[in-house]
């Protein structure tokens, strides 16, 4: 699962964020910088639910999931979606609790559970305040379009970026995040069907089977493979 800490690891030393997926208020560090009228990063919603499609270079696959994001309490829940019959593919639910430093991986069919220590710090799903504004444009066409802004971690010391984030202008909803290395895409996530708030906070509560969780992560493939 492409969790908060995993996103931070992809950024490495040249990353634009200081912490994945937002505690406290952002301090506007861009005051006085840039030309008059230069856009400044907006603040993304801190509690919302939606869907995502993640592409990973390592597997060459797209994976779909339902996503519940709670930046106020530093927790995320990802529920794998089955959109096609993939032989020997196990579906999981992931509950990442950064306040407790743990992630629960639950197999949807059997409720078998793994409890894994989170080693990476929380990294909010937002635009870092020291990001570089790249562009503003409209997605769609006449009578059906939305304006978005594109931000990156590109700095004057280098000519390329390792992170690109696209957010809507009006309400600062995430649209897409892309991580690159050596000009190749490592991870790309598209967000859609976003609704504000958390409809059922109990989605962040692990099932009872996690009381006897195993410490090793489970494979996405069948156990006999």
List the helices and strands and how they pair.
Layout: H1 4-11, E1 47-56, E2 61-70, E3 75-80, E4 92-97, E5 102-107, E6 113-117, E7 132-141, E8 144-152, E9 163-168, E10 174-181, E11 184-196
Antiparallel strand pairs: 1-2, 1-11, 2-3, 3-4, 4-5, 5-6, 7-8, 8-9, 9-10, 10-11
Fraction of helical residues? under 10%
The number of helical elements comes to 1
Characterize the main sheet: 11 strands, antiparallel
> What is the radius of gyration computed over CA atoms, rounded to a whole number of angstroms?
18 Å
Please state how the strands of the largest beta sheet are arranged side by side.
Answer: 6-5-4-3-2-1-11-10-9-8-7
User: What's the helix-strand series?
Assistant: HEEEEEEEEEEE
The structure class reads mainly beta
Mean pLDDT over the full residue set: 83
Regions with pLDDT < 50 over 5+ consecutive residues?
12-34
Strand content: 35-45%
Report, as a whole number of angstroms, the end-to-end distance: 20 Å
Number of strands: 11
**Apparent shape:** globular
Which descriptors would you attach to this protein?
mainly beta; single chain; globular; 1 helix; 11 strands; 225 residues; eleven-stranded antiparallel sheet
């Amino acid at each position: 699962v492409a969790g908060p800490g995993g996103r931070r690891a992809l950024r490495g030393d040249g990353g634009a964020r200081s912490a994945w997926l937002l505690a406290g208020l952002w301090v506007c560090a861009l005051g006085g910088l840039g030309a008059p009228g230069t856009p400044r990063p907006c603040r993304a919603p801190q509690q919302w639910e939606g869907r995502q499609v993640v592409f990973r270079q390592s597997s060459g696959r797209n994976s779909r999931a339902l996503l519940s994001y709670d930046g106020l309490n530093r927790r995320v829940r990802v529920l794998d979606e089955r959109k096609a019959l993939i032989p020997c593919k196990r579906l999981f639910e992931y509950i990442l609790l950064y306040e407790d430093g743990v992630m629960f991986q639950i197999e949807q069919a059997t409720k078998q559970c793994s409890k894994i220590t989170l080693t990476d710090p929380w990294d909010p799903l937002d635009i870092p305040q020291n990001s570089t504004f790249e562009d503003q444009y409209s997605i769609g066409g006449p009578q059906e379009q939305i304006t978005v802004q594109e931000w990156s971690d590109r700095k004057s010391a280098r000519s390329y970026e390792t992170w690109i984030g696209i957010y809507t202008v009006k309400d600062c909803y995430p649209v897409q995040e892309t991580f690159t290395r050596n000009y190749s895409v490592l991870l790309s996530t598209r967000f859609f069907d976003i609704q504000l708030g958390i409809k059922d906070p109990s989605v962040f509560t692990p099932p009872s089977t996690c009381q006897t969780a195993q410490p090793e992560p489970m494979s996405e493939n069948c156990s006999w493979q």
